[in-house]
Design goal:
Radius of gyration: 21 Å
CATH class of the largest domain: Alpha Beta
Shape: globular
CATH superfamily of the largest domain: Formyl transferase, N-terminal domain
Mean pLDDT: 94
Number of strands: 13
CATH architecture of the largest domain: 3-Layer(aba) Sandwich
Largest sheet: 7 strands, mixed
Order of helices and strands: EHEEHEEHEHEHEHEHEEHEE
Strand content: 25-35%
């Protein structure tokens, strides 16, 4: 535990909201280290993130108790996170390992602020990679007709490992609506940014045939609507006629790894807030 906390707030817009919030923090002797806010005037909502340093001896529970009356008065949906607490993260992957390898390297070198719970795969390809990083590898094959049993094992594992965040790092199985609901708001997926164009297999071959000039990636929260969850981050790079399908795919893998790492980092630092089908991201 530390004496630094992250406060996130969403509530209806009103005059004096920021004054009310900072008044509580000042009354508790807290120093505001970082503050960002966004007013969605169309929805009539305020989104706010503050990072604060509390005086020695003030606990998170005490700060929550002090803030609760103001939160009730202004109909706030809010959370107070210990900045030092790490999000327990489970990575799921199939046979494309570029995002997995990138996330594990960032985590091992201290660049990804999560607690790595393990790696799940429907194939056995990356067992040695996970072992090399000293984390558990869980092989959950998805046999024909065996999806329900595989998902039951996955759900049990999420509880056993006390998982806070699931990262689909090119996991090529479609999760059921039930599992999507269970991990809603705490599961992130990555895919190429061509969607909804070039669906299905060999998307880069399809893109090459159409002569695309941009290759990119999209990271979003998982929902029951396949590949249509709230977007956290996107990026693109320019390509031209000289790039064949293999070259496009290689460039796409690089973008996917970078976009997914940013999305996981921002989620772990409590910088992403859901706003209906969209997100507010305090980068």
């Amino acid at each position: 535990m530390s004496n630094e906390f992250v406060l996130t707030v969403r509530c209806p817009e009103a005059v004096g909201l920021v004054h009310a919030i900072t008044g509580v923090l000042a009354g508790c002797g807290c120093d505001i280290m970082e503050s960002r806010q966004f007013d969605d005037h169309d929805a009539g909502q305020l989104f706010l993130r503050m990072q604060v340093r509390a005086p020695d001896g003030l606990t998170g529970d005490q700060l929550r108790a002090a803030f609760a009356p103001v939160a009730r008065r202004h109909q706030m949906r809010w959370q107070l996170h210990d900045k030092a607490a790490r999000v327990r993260t489970l990575i799921m992957v199939s046979r494309l390992g570029h995002c997995l390898n990138d996330l594990l390297f960032r985590w091992k070198t201290g660049l990804l602020p999560v607690d790595m719970a393990g790696v799940v795969s429907n194939h056995d390809d990356f067992r040695e990679l996970a072992a090399g990083y000293g984390i558990g590898f869980y092989h959950i094959p998805v046999a024909p007709g065996g999806k329900a049993a595989a998902e039951s094992r996955l759900v049990t594992l999420l509880g056993e490992l006390q998982v806070d965040l699931v990262v689909l790092a090119r996991y090529m199985q479609i999760l059921s609506n039930e599992v999507c609901k269970r991990v809603e708001g705490r599961a992130i997926n990555i895919h190429h940014s061509f969607l909804p164009s070039f669906k299905g297999g060999r998307p880069y071959h399809q893109a090459h045939a159409r002569g695309v000039k941009l290759v990119g990636a999209t990271a979003h929260y998982v929902t029951a609507d396949l590949d249509e969850g709230p977007i956290i981050d996107q990026d693109v790079i320019r390509v031209d006629h000289s790039h064949g399908p293999a070259g496009l795919a290689a460039l796409g893998r690089d973008v996917e790894a970078q976009v997914l790492a940013r999305a996981v980092t921002w989620h772990a630092e409590h910088r992403v807030m859901l706003n209906g089908n969209r997100t507010v991201v305090f980068r």
